Structure formats: C-alpha cells, structure tokens
Amino acid sequence: MTATTLSRPGASASTASTPADAATDASGAPAAAARAARPRRYLMCRPTHFEVSYAINPWMDPAEPVDTGLAVAQWERLYRLFRELGHRVDLIDPLPGLPDMVYAANGATVVDGRVLGARFRNAERAAEGPAYLEWFRARGFATHDPAHVNEGEGDILLTGRYLLAGRGFRSVSAGHAEAQEFLGRPVIGLDLVDPRFYHLDTALSVLDGEEIMYYPGAFSAGSRRVLQQLFPDAVLVDEADAEAFGLNVVSDGLHVIHPEPATGVAARLRERGFRPIAMDLSELLKGGGSVKCCTLEIRE
What are the tens digits of pLDDT across the range 80-102? Predict the structure, then answer.
C-alpha cells in the first residue's frame, strides 16, 4: 500500500515523511523506507446513543454537555479515514442504553480468529460484552465467554510476541490468565497506578511488532522495569501528551492515527519514520476514549 497525503475535515492536513533512503533513525528503529502499512480489519460502533450520563472514569462528567451529533461526525471522519487508508471496517449496531458501546476496543480481544469476550467491571457497561460476543459468534468465530474481568483491547494489547495486559483499575490477573489460556500467547501483566490512565490503551500503544510507546508515570516501578527490559527502544511519552490521550492511537505499521492535541507524540513518531495523522475526537474524549478506544482490531 502506498501512503498518500489526505485532505480530511477536522483532521491534520498533512502526514510527515522522512528521507526515502534512510533505513534506520537515530534510535536504530526502522525509518520510513523500511516501514509499510498493512491492511487491517477493524470493528467499530457508531455513537448513535453516545452521552455521558454517569461517571466511571476521571474523564467523565455528567454535568458537562455532550453534543451527540458532533460525536457522530467526528467518528464518521475516523471511519472514512480507515477506509481511505485501505482498511476493512465492519460495523456493529449500537444498542439503546449503552452509550459507551462506541468504544469498540473494549468489546473483545481477537487473535488468530479466536475471540475472547469482555467482562466489564462496571454494571453500566455489563451488557456490552454479550452484544460484542454475539456479533462474532454469529459470524463463525471461535469465541470464549470469560469468567473473569477483562475489558478487551482496553487492557490487552498484542505485540509480535506478547499480550501486554493492564490491571489495577479494571481488568484482573485472573482475566489475564484466561486470556493466555484461550489465545495461546504469553501474557505480561502490567500494573497501572494513575487513575487518569485506567485502561492500558490510555498508557501504552503498540506501533508495529515489538515497537511500543508508553507513558512511564502510568505504571508501577516494577512494571516500568519490565517494560524497559522487554522494550529498551520504546518511545517514551510525557505527561502532557499522555493526558491528551496521545497513546490512544491506531497504527497500521506506517500511519499512526492520533488525537489532534498530542503534538509531541506526532513529533516522536516522525522521528521513528511513522506517518502521524491527527484526528479531532474531542467530543468522544468526554467519555474517556479516543482513536484506539473506538477501534477493535479483528486479527484473523
């Protein structure tokens, strides 16, 4: 797939490039010439019923007005962008009474065509897990209804070798063990300690294979040491960009779609040969989610 500069309403007008003959950057990571976008398959849910009527994370404030129409418009831009970049996007029907169903990443974890369903900690979201699992079951996927709390790709992120699994605010260690048994990938448990970063996908993102970026302050001291040992060349993000949800991104191996305010993340990605694309999802951030939260990857 060739990368193009796209004109999109509400998004950054350009992508960044690096010299075509550079094989690596200063850190030794692959530069633009060595990177390639790989077509992906995603599942998304239109925010037809989006609102903030309760608070289950520090970003939610029911007293702050929400413009559902604007949330839909911002989501539509992200949906169109994925398709412009050559990715397949499936849609699950939004259900009344489930305003957070737009955050599709929380709905399951899909690896090698096997679907580990989600079990939510908060009662307000409990019905989302069965809804997503039924979508996959109806399409012939091998599914597992979990016995323990795990909140899908919100807390389980796949690298080339590992399932990185967050715990501390939502998902639990027993859910990690269940994921390892069903998905057949080794799990690395990581302790989240800052309630602003209540899901792993707000504190860490997988860019390509074993390349990750993360905000160290979101993790316990022991988990930081684990990340340093496993990913010594990781991109480290500062607190300001982490607070802007700059780690809640989607990467296809070349393009990295990120929240518009995370300008520092964009600069670091360009240094590594990625092509950042900024998106305005400010209305959906009122529910505590951004680009990645809206996107569940289907790995067949």
Answer: 999 999 999 999 999 999 999 99
Q: From the candidates 87, 176, 255, 293, which is the catalytic residue?
A: 293
Please indicate, yes or no, if residue 2 is contained in any of the structural domains.
no
1 within domain boundaries: no
146-185 pLDDT, tens digit per residue, is: 999 999 999 999 999 999 999 999 999 999 999 999 999 9
Please identify which residue in the block is written with the tokens 């080339």. Answer: 160
Token pair recorded at residue 111: 């690896």
Domain count of the chain? 1
Query: Quick one: tokens of 290?
Result: 């951004």
Cα–Cα distance measured from residue 161 to residue 163, given in angstroms and rounded to the nearest whole number: 7
Report the length, in residues, of the chain: 300
Is 294 a known active-site residue? no
CATH of the domain at 185: 3.75.10.10
Boundaries of domain holding 134: 32-297
User: Is 199 annotated as catalytic?
Assistant: yes
Q: For residue 136, which of 90, 182, 88, 197 has the smallest C-alpha distance?
A: 90
The alpha helices in 195-245, defined as continuous H runs, are: 221-230, 239-243
Q: Token digits for 23?
A: 């094989």
**pTM, rounded to two decimals:** 0.89
Catalytic residue among 176, 199, 255, 258: 199
